[in-house]
């Protein structure tokens, strides 16, 4: 799998926000927290993840590069809050009341559970098919079954067989 290089300036912006948020948490909770390590290996449509035991935050390099500071402002506190919740409360519900408290009261950000960044460039490829009445989106798995003759998809509305639309 090809790896994506995150520009140094963007990595520095990540760490700047991380330290600001960590300082907020230290002030509020009267505790010094170790700085989490950050890696850029998150794949797919997920923006980031927190490795609780490793004290590590994994970021999606493609979504970071595409969304810049908006990504940092949202994803860094989100994942950092997961680590801090684990540190403070141990194993609790991932987006439960402890996490909401960390997000809203301590880190001063909205407690959004999911991100809204466009995922076109990181989504697994979608194939557009059509019948007589509408277009249908097939996943790469469904598409491959059609190609190999293992499946034939039929529209539930009009009963017609789906035909692949050539990409334009
Ligand atoms: Zn989360
Ligand atoms: Zn149809």
Automatic annotation (TrEMBL):
<feature type="domain" description="SprT-like">
    <location>
        <begin position="16"/>
        <end position="165"/>
    </location>
</feature>
<dbReference type="GO" id="GO:0008270">
    <property type="term" value="F:zinc ion binding"/>
</dbReference>
<keyword id="KW-0479">Metal-binding</keyword>
<dbReference type="InterPro" id="IPR006640">
    <property type="entry name" value="SprT-like_domain"/>
</dbReference>
<dbReference type="GO" id="GO:0006950">
    <property type="term" value="P:response to stress"/>
</dbReference>
<dbReference type="InterPro" id="IPR035240">
    <property type="entry name" value="SprT_Zn_ribbon"/>
</dbReference>
<feature type="binding site">
    <location>
        <position position="78"/>
    </location>
    <ligand>
        <name>Zn(2+)</name>
    </ligand>
</feature>
<dbReference type="Pfam" id="PF17283">
    <property type="entry name" value="Zn_ribbon_SprT"/>
</dbReference>
<dbReference type="GO" id="GO:0005737">
    <property type="term" value="C:cytoplasm"/>
</dbReference>
<comment type="similarity">
    <text>Belongs to the SprT family.</text>
</comment>
<dbReference type="Pfam" id="PF10263">
    <property type="entry name" value="SprT-like"/>
</dbReference>
<keyword id="KW-0963">Cytoplasm</keyword>
<dbReference type="InterPro" id="IPR023483">
    <property type="entry name" value="Uncharacterised_SprT"/>
</dbReference>
<protein>
    <recommendedName>
        <fullName>Protein SprT</fullName>
    </recommendedName>
</protein>
<keyword id="KW-0862">Zinc</keyword>
<feature type="active site">
    <location>
        <position position="79"/>
    </location>
</feature>
<feature type="binding site">
    <location>
        <position position="82"/>
    </location>
    <ligand>
        <name>Zn(2+)</name>
    </ligand>
</feature>
């Amino acid at each position: 799998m090809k790896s994506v290089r995150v520009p140094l300036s963007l990595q520095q912006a990540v760490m700047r926000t991380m330290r600001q948020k960590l300082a907020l948490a230290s002030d509020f909770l009267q505790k010094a927290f170790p700085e989490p390590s950050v890696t850029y290996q998150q794949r797919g449509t997920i923006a980031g993840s927190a490795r609780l035991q490793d004290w590590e935050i994994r970021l999606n390099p493609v979504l970071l590069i595409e969304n810049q500071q908006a990504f940092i402002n949202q994803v860094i506190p989100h994942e950092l809050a997961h680590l801090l919740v684990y540190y403070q409360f141990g194993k609790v519900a991932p987006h439960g009341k402890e996490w909401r408290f960390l997000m809203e009261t301590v880190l001063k950000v909205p407690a959004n559970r999911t991100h809204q960044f466009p995922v076109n460039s990181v989504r697994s490829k979608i194939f557009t098919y059509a019948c007589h009445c509408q277009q249908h989106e097939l996943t790469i798995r469904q598409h491959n079954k059609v190609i190999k003759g293992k499946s034939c998809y039929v529209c539930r509305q009009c009963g017609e067989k789906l035909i692949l639309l050539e990409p334009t």
